[in-house]
Design goal:
GO terms for molecular function: ribose-5-phosphate isomerase activity. The protein is α/β, with parallel strands linked by helices. Helices cover 29% and strands 25% of the residues. Helix 1 crosses helix 2. The two termini are 25 Å apart. The structure holds D-4-phosphoerythronic acid.
């Protein structure tokens, strides 16, 4: 119910920020799926979408919503996606759904990033949720050793290959991550790392948080 309420508010916000030539970036996960299903009722109001995963692309196409390659669009007006954790600065941990690289790419392109989440994702400091790091397969052990030097406890996400053909390490024991921007840069600099799930260098611009008292809208 909280996901539904947040997704409903997010559709209304999105429609208020776009026109019929706009491209909407779509995230991945169960909250993003609620958003897709509700957005479908207004598909005449958007020009099309860019998806951050094959799964989301297929869901959109099943609703008859046009899905474009990111290289084919000039601009993404707004990107709407969930998160695994968000702190009060709207800095996020993402990647629970293994789509973090394409999510981060579309978020980087989008003019505005609207994060949609229920209150269970709200934390004072990031890092209780294990930080997903997407890694080139041959570099997995090297990256794991480097993450240990940073104080992490990396666990290989067995049996998962990303849309990009890479593997994921989930890094435990980093809490409290502060400052998040500094750790994001350090992990980015480890050779073999493709993406890490910290969205602090580029946080969300707006957060819609589903709470027992209703949907709260917060700004970075
Ligand atoms: O993988 C991600 O970053 C997703 O946004 C995801 O973790 C959030 O998933 P949920 O909306 O199903 O909680």
């Amino acid at each position: 119910a909280l996901k539904q309420a947040v997704a409903t508010a997010a559709v209304a916000y999105t429609l208020s920020r776009i026109d019929d030539k706009s491209i909407v970036g779509i995230g991945t996960g169960s909250t993003a799926n609620c958003f897709i299903d509700l957005l479908a009722e207004h598909k005449a109001s958007i020009a099309g979408t860019v998806a951050s995963s094959q799964a989301s692309a297929e869901r959109l196409k099943a609703h008859g919503i046009p899905v474009y390659d990111l290289n084919a669009v000039d601009e993404v007006t707004i990107y709407v996606d969930g998160a695994d954790e968000t702190n009060p600065h709207l800095e996020l941990i993402k990647g629970g759904g293994a789509a973090l690289t394409r999510e981060k790419i579309v978020a980087a392109v989008a003019r505005e990033f609207l994060c949609i989440a229920d209150q269970s994702k709200w934390v004072d400091h990031l890092g209780t949720f294990p930080l997903p790091v997407e890694v080139i397969p041959m570099a997995r052990s090297h990256v794991a050793r480097e993450l240990v030097k940073l104080g992490g406890d990396p666990v290989y996400r067995q049996g998962v290959v990303t849309d990009n053909g890479n593997v994921i390490l989930d890094v435990h024991h980093l809490h409290p991550i502060s400052p998040a921007r500094e750790l994001e840069e350090k992990i980015n600099n480890i050779t073999g790392v493709v993406t890490n799930g910290l969205f602090a260098l580029r946080p969300a611009d707006v957060l819609m948080l589903g709470t027992a008292e209703g949907v709260k809208t917060l700004y970075a």
